[in-house]
């Protein structure tokens, strides 16, 4: 893997003008780099510095939108980010570089939140968790929700020894305080980088329960995305879909959920990459 990236350095994308980014949780602005930019480098590499692993493009070191040195905590994450940059063709499509964006967010922390604030923001999604809100009509959709969502709720209740439940009320289920405290305690075991990834996955799936099932490797990305879009998929099966738009949205959601989950795992695992020398 090291041989794939000859020694070089990397340039940061141009910073976004204040107020131009999309609105994130709590009304904060998130990074919104230009959609595309002409590729300005030939080679991509990684190197180890005092603060961690750095990404290099040609002879420049990559920096964040706030001009911080782009340094990641694990070699595996550095290789994954370098692969994003190396896979760009004639133009750099920033909207495809989810790992790079997550690293920028972790390094610059544009919302200026601490660890507990990140955790509470994640747990807050329990109050509006997609799979806890059920319908009574039509009967076919209600049955589909029960058959598909009940097993993942049951898994979560057993896995974390909590009570979650579901409700057909517009107010949603009454999540016990003890359940929220359990999830707060569990999320506290993750580092700040991983928590950024967890919150990202949750915002994509609109569900803490599905996100934890995905991160815990209980369900696949494809399954998590399908469960998060259950009602939409039901309506599409019944009424049809807009040609190409549905498939595009589905692929995009899968890509973002997969990238966020990978980011969590690469930030949580301390094992180093094993380098294999090819011999004749």
TrEMBL record:
Quaternary organization: Interacts with ATP5F1B; involved in the assembly of the F1 component of the mitochondrial ATP synthase (ATPase). Interacts with FMC1.
UniProt GO BP: mitochondrial proton-transporting ATP synthase complex assembly
GO CC terms in record: mitochondrial inner membrane
Function: Plays a role in the assembly of the F1 component of the mitochondrial ATP synthase (ATPase).
Membrane topology category: Peripheral membrane protein
PANTHER family, per database record: ATP SYNTHASE MITOCHONDRIAL F1 COMPLEX ASSEMBLY FACTOR 2, ATP SYNTHASE MITOCHONDRIAL F1 COMPLEX ASSEMBLY FACTOR 2/ATP12 PROTEIN, MITOCHONDRIAL PRECURSOR
Gene3D superfamilies: ATP12 ATPase (1.10.3580.10), ATP12-like (3.30.2180.10)
Name by which UniProt lists this protein: ATP synthase mitochondrial F1 complex assembly factor 2
Subcellular location field: Mitochondrion inner membrane
InterPro entries to which the protein is assigned, alphabetical: ATP12_ATP_synth-F1-assembly, ATP12_ATP_synth-F1-assembly_N, ATP12_ortho_dom_sf
Alphabetical keyword list: Chaperone, Membrane, Mitochondrion, Mitochondrion inner membrane, Transit peptide
Family to which this protein belongs: Belongs to the ATP12 family.
UniProt xrefs under Pfam families: ATP12
